Task: inverse folding
């Protein structure tokens, strides 16, 4: 099933400048593995050594946080949009 993955600016150097890429995958975990095949080094930016989503990375499936779904095992369907959103911190005291 083809899904669209929206890639944030900091990761676009890995995707050769592409802001959106398509992958055929059945779960979010599968989609990340497919992205790694196409763009080596992509997975390590999202997944930690334990195989879990890094805490400073947020993934949204059709605008819903995957942490409130089935996490990386959330199933995908044709036309879904997976958005990668890095956490932003900072500010002024």
Result:
């Amino acid at each position: 099933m083809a899904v669209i993955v929206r890639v944030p600016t900091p990761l676009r150097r890995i995707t050769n400048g592409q802001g959106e890429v398509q992958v055929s995958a059945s779960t979010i975990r599968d989609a990340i593995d497919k992205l790694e095949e196409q763009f080596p080094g992509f997975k390590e930016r999202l997944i930690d050594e334990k195989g879990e989503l890094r805490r400073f990375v947020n993934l949204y499936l059709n605008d819903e946080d995957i942490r409130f779904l089935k996490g990386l095992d959330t199933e995908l369907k044709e036309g879904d949009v997976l958005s990668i959103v890095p956490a932003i911190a900072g500010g002024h005291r």
